[in-house]
Amino acid sequence: MKKLLRELEEMVVDAWPAPESEELDGWLLRRSGGPSRRGNSVATLSAGDELTLEQRIAKAETWYGLHAQAAVFQVGPCAAPKELEQALIAAGYRKQAETALATAAPAQVAASTQRFLATRVDEKPSEAWLQIAVGQSRFAGTETVFRGFLQRLGSRARFFTAYDEQGVPAAACMGIASEDRLGIYAMITLPTARGKGAARSLLHTLAEGALREQMRELYLLVECENLVARSLYARCGFQDVYKYHYRAL
Asked: In CATH, which of 3.40.30.10, 3.40.630.30, 3.90.980.10, 1.10.3720.10 is domain 106-215?
């Protein structure tokens, strides 16, 4: 199980490449700008022995401070060293955005969903996709940051859009390939389209695409407090594997 957790955590870090990063004795300091916690936090999967924990935290705080940002730490089951969580709590870092990583077999998701709305898959982000994925998301004010992220992903990204009966874009999400897994990111349904099967249509199309590409697993990240989304994903075959959170002052 420990090997699997490590593999999954490394995959999640790799799936969201930051434009600026620096290694700190095993940690990875990431800076992207914009609202992404993942792209603006410390990945703590490894820790060398060159620095004490106190020195390590202080250096991370200094690095982010030089960029006028507060240090934020991503803490999951493989966070190192093992004393990190308690050290952050003692220093006043508060827990934020507890998130679950859930996985499912593509065949199970395909069997548990159906295409209620018309869907489209593109190799490049269409204007319809950007209209929802950027215009209706927390990246609305930082589109340049998001476009830079998409450029860094390159051919690893697949762009999924669902359309209502009038042919109007209703929902969008992104698939990010990581060897034989396909991650589901940036799932957004417009308020006017909710309850009409848009998300399930996208999941069905994602699962079909994963099967065509011979991907063995789908995965997604969902904040634990988003009970509606978690219930939907569970009904579609996804099961939690682990949880992680952030610590910020």
From this structure: 3.40.630.30
CB proximity list for 159: less than 8 A, separation 6 or greater = 121, 122, 123, 124, 125, 126, 129, 133, 172, 174, 175
- List the chain pLDDT tens, one digit each, 249 residues: 889 999 999 999 999 999 999 999 999 999 998 888 999 999 999 999 999 999 999 999 999 999 999 999 999 999 999 999 999 999 999 999 999 999 999 999 999 999 999 999 999 999 999 999 888 777 877 888 888 999 999 999 999 999 999 999 999 999 999 999 999 999 999 998 888 999 999 999 999 999 999 999 999 999 999 999 999 999 999 999 999 999 999
Q: What is the pTM of this model?
A: 0.93
